[in-house]
């Protein structure tokens, strides 16, 4: 089994410079994001799409880049207006060095990450100008460019009167439309998890969480079966540890179960994903400090990640069998809440003394994992915002992973290098056990 302790999502913001001339009804026209690589000395190394655009306007883009300042560095950007009648505003973004690739020191593919960050910056610049349609340079990696565009344009403003401009993005040219579509699916999956984690806890209760996932599956995903297990079912399963956490809340607990059968071999054992789903964590009777308690709406980040992963796998029609489990409830103080020192019985029959009711994640996950073993999975990945100690250890740089499987660790690490979501293996030495 492998456990990932994920940090709560933080939107990255890139520094940008604007180069402005007169603007004219930009919202009625298209915007364009183009990339340039760093070049030693003077000048710029344009991407294929940027070079093609520059040719159509008789080299004006190169000329303006040269006179507007030094070579555009990674993460920097410039805006130009009036270069082309179809694109009244063009955002040019720095992609870093053209030869950037997998960096062992950073544990990611720097080239892909540079593209994601740069395209995100360009799309947000044009969104601020209220441009509604943006064409994006594939920058040599259409999938990364699409991810950057979709992730960069995410805003949780559903409850605001004044919302950000809704921007539609599309690939500029016809290079690698398949990669672009895949990147869009990746980005939308991540944004689904971000939306669930950003929403206020009174808008994302266990019931509404499950309803949102059900709606996503019915509209976008295929071959996914969803089971919304009620409190009565949880009681039948004798999930006493899970129920003990939910006792203090007026919101009923819900056990969400997703099955995606994408493998052509129906006998293939599934990969099991289990996510912690505390839709609000007050700490229970062991009440958390009030400062920053509002962030505990995101304590269901594990469940959000697991469910979004299953939805995305189905949208991409991946040839695998997946099962996603998400025990969902609130951890609240009340006259019915579990008290420090109480003893509860888990699904496997073991009793647990609860010394601190703010250690609720391991309780709901214990019962979910016991249930998950009945599916005879080939591997289990457990995802949770389980402890602030992981944030102390790694900060926002990486996700901590505890695993007893070298094979599974290698797969996770290999994937993280490509996606830019870095992971770091934590020790499971015998030294840490009771000897």
From TrEMBL:
<feature type="domain" description="Cytosol aminopeptidase">
    <location>
        <begin position="356"/>
        <end position="363"/>
    </location>
</feature>
<dbReference type="Pfam" id="PF00883">
    <property type="entry name" value="Peptidase_M17"/>
</dbReference>
<dbReference type="InterPro" id="IPR043472">
    <property type="entry name" value="Macro_dom-like"/>
</dbReference>
<dbReference type="InterPro" id="IPR011356">
    <property type="entry name" value="Leucine_aapep/pepB"/>
</dbReference>
<dbReference type="Pfam" id="PF02789">
    <property type="entry name" value="Peptidase_M17_N"/>
</dbReference>
<dbReference type="GO" id="GO:0030145">
    <property type="term" value="F:manganese ion binding"/>
</dbReference>
<keyword id="KW-0645">Protease</keyword>
<dbReference type="InterPro" id="IPR008283">
    <property type="entry name" value="Peptidase_M17_N"/>
</dbReference>
<dbReference type="GO" id="GO:0006508">
    <property type="term" value="P:proteolysis"/>
</dbReference>
<dbReference type="GO" id="GO:0070006">
    <property type="term" value="F:metalloaminopeptidase activity"/>
</dbReference>
<keyword id="KW-0031">Aminopeptidase</keyword>
<keyword id="KW-0378">Hydrolase</keyword>
<comment type="subunit">
    <text>Homohexamer.</text>
</comment>
<protein>
    <recommendedName>
        <fullName>Cytosol aminopeptidase</fullName>
        <ecNumber>3.4.13.23</ecNumber>
    </recommendedName>
</protein>
<comment type="similarity">
    <text>Belongs to the peptidase M17 family.</text>
</comment>
<dbReference type="GO" id="GO:0005737">
    <property type="term" value="C:cytoplasm"/>
</dbReference>
<dbReference type="InterPro" id="IPR000819">
    <property type="entry name" value="Peptidase_M17_C"/>
</dbReference>
<comment type="function">
    <text>Cytosolic metallopeptidase that catalyzes the removal of unsubstituted N-terminal hydrophobic amino acids from various peptides. The presence of Zn(2+) ions is essential for the peptidase activity, and the association with other cofactors can modulate the substrate spectificity of the enzyme. For instance, in the presence of Mn(2+), it displays a specific Cys-Gly hydrolyzing activity of Cys-Gly-S-conjugates. Involved in the metabolism of glutathione and in the degradation of glutathione S-conjugates, which may play a role in the control of the cell redox status.</text>
</comment>
